[in-house]
């Protein structure tokens, strides 16, 4: 379930890699809960800093405002689900490209 359309936009499953050398959005993680988009960020997994960095990186990669990306599940986990408040038709191509990177 890397992505699916929901009433408020698109739900995106993410696998976070905190403490990375650089921010990178792309690739697919085949985890126990299904597929997820990999997002690596330099921020440490302390006090929500990595989650906020992921939210901003995901928004930038999808071409939407950071305010349009909301964490739904996984505040303290590496496996998170974000909702992107944008029509699926606007971000689906970008998201598919990122998942296949």
Descriptors for this entry?
6 strands; YggU-like_sf; UPF0235 protein Asi03nite_33070; alpha+beta; 101 residues; DUF167; 6-stranded mixed β-sheet; Conserved Hypothetical Protein Mth637, Chain: A
What does this 3D model show about the protein?
Belongs to the UPF0235 family. This is UPF0235 protein Asi03nite_33070. It comes from Actinoplanes siamensis. This protein has 101 residues and is α+β, with helices and mostly antiparallel strands. It has a single domain (3-99), classed as Conserved Hypothetical Protein Mth637, Chain: A, CATH 3.30.1200.10. 26% of the residues lie in helices and 39% in strands. The chain has helices at 49-62, 88-99, and strands at 3-6, 9-17, 24-31, 34-40, 69-73, 79-84. Strands 1, 2, 3, 4, 5 and 6 form a six-stranded mixed beta sheet that branches. The two termini are 17 Å apart. The mean pLDDT is 94.
Summarize the model shown:
This protein has two helices and six strands. With 101 residues, the chain is of the alpha+beta class.
Going by CATH, the architecture would be 2-Layer Sandwich
CATH superfamily: YggU-like
Q: Please tally the β strands and state the result.
A: 6
The CATH class turns out to be Alpha Beta
Distance between the termini: 17 Å
Query: How many separate domains make up the residues?
Result: 1
Please trace the helix and strand order, writing H or E for each element: EEEEHEEH
CATH topology: Conserved Hypothetical Protein Mth637, Chain: A
Q: Which bin fits the share of residues in helices?
A: 25-40%
Strand content: 35-45%
Largest sheet: 6 strands, mixed
Poorly predicted runs of 5 or more residues: none
Number of separate helices: 2
What is the typical, i.e. mean, pLDDT? 94
Instruction: Determine the oligomeric state from the structure.
Output: single chain
What structural class is derived from the secondary structure elements? alpha+beta
Cα gyration radius (Å): 12 Å
Q: Tell the overall outline.
A: globular
């Amino acid at each position: 379930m890397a992505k699916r359309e929901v009433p408020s936009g698109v739900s995106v499953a993410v696998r976070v890699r905190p403490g990375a050398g650089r921010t990178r959005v792309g690739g697919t993680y085949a985890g126990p809960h299904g597929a997820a988009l990999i997002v690596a960020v330099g921020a440490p997994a302390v006090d929500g800093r990595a989650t906020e960095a992921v939210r901003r990186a995901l928004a930038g990669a999808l071409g939407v405002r950071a305010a349009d990306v909301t964490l739904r599940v996984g505040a303290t986990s590496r496996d998170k689900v974000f909702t992107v408040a944008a029509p699926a038709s606007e971000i689906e191509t970008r998201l598919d490209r990122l998942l296949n990177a």
